[in-house]
């Protein structure tokens, strides 16, 4: 059994392309970066902590099966070394999108896959470069009204209307959305889950 430690509908949709059946067990953790913590270290730590929290929650709530695997991921938008979280207001959204406007930024996505006893833990980091065109304040106001930016790191969703701001991308599109499919398939294979082979047995 595979457990996805996320409530994100985007990660659920992407993982379903690789695995037919999995459970969802969101893990609530403190996502505050440490002082002077590098963005890459922060994103990896978030995935590790989400996986660990899901393991602990699973052990408390379920009849824990020893062969259960847990997958967690974290995606952060980074510019000038600063991690941009999710905006809590229009003002925060404006601040983020103005910062990204007309510039290139990084989207860093981490993966963590582990077993129930956490004696087999694998992590992966995927970095993509995204270039935004110039964005006007009117566009930012209208975009906020759609509701799309409000639960997105960096205040935009590349898989939605936010894609109109993206001039180019270098890296993994699925990682920017929330789950890098190539790297996820590689990690799953390390744990004995081979996506295309499993789906061929329908």
Question: Helices, strands, pairings?
Answer:
Elements: E1 2-4, H1 9-15, E2 23-24, H2 39-61, E3 69-79, E4 82-84, H3 90-100, E5 104-115, E6 121-132, H4 137-145, E7 166-170, H5 173-177, H6 181-190, H7 195-199
Parallel strand pairs: 1-2, 1-3
Antiparallel strand pairs: 3-4, 3-5, 5-6, 6-7
Helix pairs in contact: 3-4
Active site: 74
Subcellular location: Cytoplasm
GO molecular function: dTTP diphosphatase activity; UTP diphosphatase activity
In short:
This protein has seven helices and seven strands. Strands 1, 2, 3, 4, 5, 6 and 7 form a seven-stranded mixed beta sheet that branches.
3D architecture notes:
The protein is of the alpha/beta class. It has a single domain (2-199), classed as Maf protein. Helices cover 35% and strands 24% of the residues. Strands 1, 2, 3, 4, 5, 6 and 7 form a 7-stranded mixed beta sheet that branches. The radius of gyration is 17 Å and the shape is elongated.
Tell me the domain tally: 1
The number of E-state strands comes to: 7
Helix content: 25-40%
- Summarize the helix and strand pattern as letters: EHEHEEHEEHEHHH
| CATH third-tier fold name | Maf protein
Largest sheet: 7 strands, mixed
Low-pLDDT ranges: none
Shape: elongated
The helix count comes to 7
Site (Important for substrate specificity): 10, 75, 159
Protein name: dTTP/UTP pyrophosphatase
Catalytic activity: UTP + H2O = UMP + diphosphate + H(+); dTTP + H2O = dTMP + diphosphate + H(+)
EC number: 3.6.1.9
